């Protein structure tokens, strides 16, 4: 795992940077795991990404030691969390299979989910999708797109990363990319700067995208962990600190 640089925000430092895990975690701290999903999570991002920041603060707000956070490939992170080797993992969307194996927290993030098309592709922008090519990174849930794949007989492409999908969209190798808006905006700015050649497709419906912390149902303390995390997360929201942290993180330029 590569080193994680400190936050550049003076406001965060003024609020007590020691609580963010700059020092070694408490011996009794929980061990959590996540993967690469910038800007939510990333080993090279400030403090491991905004999700990692919020998860640490939520446990602190609940009176718990700041957890340690390990970065692993998503498949391994999921498997080892399910087996109880890590106390929790984040951030995950809901889907039917996952809910059989995990308890979900209250939403860690609430964002919008969209389809992105090239600005010069009027059919894709206007929702005329019959037989179009849709790109979704390998390992991402298809729960948000399954209905549209069936309805329009979309041809699904599954490259390794979102960056692959965006490059394929730009080169007319695919027609659509489906993604959380926050994640897509970050990736587009990294690849194309402030003027990416894409637009959100107008399909006549708004879709929400919620992300959660998950705990394996196999853990005997699963309900307690979820309860503590939810209490801390609610405290962050009620105090306004959640919004402060999210706004400050969104204002940071994308790392390259």
From TrEMBL:
InterPro entries per record? Solute-binding_3/MltF_N
Where in the numbering of this chain does the Solute-binding protein family 3/N-terminal domain appear? 49-249
Q: Which Pfam families match?
A: SBP_bac_3
Any idea what this protein is called? Transporter substrate-binding domain-containing protein
Give the originating organism.
Chromobacterium subtsugae
Upper classification of the organism: Bacteria, Pseudomonadati, Pseudomonadota, Betaproteobacteria, Neisseriales
């Amino acid at each position: 795992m590569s080193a994680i640089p400190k936050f550049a925000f003076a406001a965060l430092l003024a609020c007590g940077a020691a609580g963010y895990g700059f020092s070694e975690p408490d011996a009794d701290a929980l061990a959590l795991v996540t993967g690469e999903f910038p800007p939510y999570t990333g080993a090279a991002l400030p403090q491991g990404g905004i999700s990692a920041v919020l998860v640490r603060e939520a446990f602190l707000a609940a009176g718990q030691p700041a957890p340690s956070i390990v970065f692993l490939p998503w498949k391994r992170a999921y498997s080892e969390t399910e087996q109880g080797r890590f106390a929790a993992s984040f951030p995950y969307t809901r889907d039917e299979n996952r809910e059989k194996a995990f308890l979900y927290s209250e939403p860690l993030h609430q964002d919008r989910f969209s389809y992105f098309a090239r600005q010069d592709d009027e059919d894709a922008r206007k929702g005329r999708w019959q037989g179009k090519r849709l790109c979704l990174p390998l390992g991402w849930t298809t729960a948000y797109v399954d209905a549209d794949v069936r309805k329009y007989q979309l041809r699904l492409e599954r490259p390794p990363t979102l960056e692959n999908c965006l490059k394929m969209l730009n080169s007319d190798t695919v027609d659509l990319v489906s993604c959380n808006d926050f994640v897509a905006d970050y990736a587009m700015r990294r690849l194309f700067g402030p003027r990416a050649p894409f637009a959100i497709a107008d399909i006549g419906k708004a879709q929400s995208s919620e992300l959660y912390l998950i705990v394996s149902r196999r853990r005997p303390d699963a309900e307690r962990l979820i309860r503590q995390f939810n209490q801390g997360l609610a405290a962050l929201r009620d105090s306004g600190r959640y919004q402060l942290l999210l706004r400050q993180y969104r204002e940071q330029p994308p790392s390259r």
